[in-house]
Amino acid sequence: MTQKTARRLAAAARAAVFLAAWMAAAVAARADSKVLEGVPAYLAADVFSAPAAPQAPPGLAAVCFAASDPLPALRGPTLPAMPQYEWWYGCSPTAAGMMAGYWDGLPGRTNLFDGDARIWFGDQDTGTRAMVASRAHITAGKENGYTYGDYHNSISYPEHQANPDCVADFLKTVDSGTYASNIAAGLRNFIAWDNPRTALPEGLPAQTAQLYVPFFGGTFEYDTFKAEIDAGRPVILNLLTAETETKWVGHSVVGYGYQDAMFQVKVATNYGAILDLTVGGFAVRDTWMNGTAFSEWVDWKENVFSSVIDAQGVEWWPFIDIRGASWVYDDGTPGPYDWMVTDAVTLYVAPEPATALLVAAGMGWLARRTFSRGRHGRGRRPAGDG
Predict the structure, then answer these.
(1) Helix, strand, or coil (residue 329)
(2) What is the pLDDT of residue 309?
(3) Which residues face 238 on adjacent strands?
């Protein structure tokens, strides 16, 4: 590369940084942010100056992950949890349980759970804890030699696999680990399930989808996530990070809000490039404790930072779709837990038939009444008649 070409590339990079900063300011002025359930959006943001040339932070090296490699089971550590749903025998069933709890609180969907699924309560026999992981699931894990639960049969529950009774069973979770490919179908089947142990007729038709990011050949990106939030639908986000040079780990969280151009992060790629990116943030229910050190990234100044918690107590993570690499220290020890999105699970729950019929009847009555008043009312005309 000639010096002239290098100067042109450097100038283009500076121009891109300037343009990104200008666009970020414009986005902030339009307040392009949203959090479900009326939680205020994060407003403050630090402004960094971009380095002349992106480079790896001192002491850190990028460890690559190939798109052809099999995704590991998603497995979350047993950490103190947030005030919503605590980690309970797996991050994926806990996240899926929160999704069910969200929809159970919406009009026409209150029969998803016999009780208030918006509240975290109970034990392995009762409440939302049993909804996420039941006694049969927990006992099967112990009897089959695992630290945590199992959806397979066990000595005490020989017919367990054919009779799932909790989210973790439907997701086929074993020892707190869940394959991402099981989440969408498992969540959909759980939503449609009628618990035979309750008098309430649970079970509603639902639509789910597993959407991969471009690195894995899909189309799910930040704008896709925003569209789900705008439609009032939280999303399960599955993420990866490197724990060591040879071990990748996964985690499932729920994203329920967004803030544009919130973070400036260094992102490694599997082709050796280090990118300085301005990315949006997402409001997260991570099944852990707010501000945990198990969520860290590297900013443009090469500093390691953790999640942001705003004045309303909402925790925010940077939305980074994986580019095939993660940070570890040069000596091979774990680097920052720079969680990056690999795929997402979306969910829509149809309202109860009686509610849907009531809404349809009400809309029909309103349409007939409007038409009648327009034709026969006191001088009123149907809309559009000028």
Answers:
(1) strand
(2) 86
(3) 252, 343
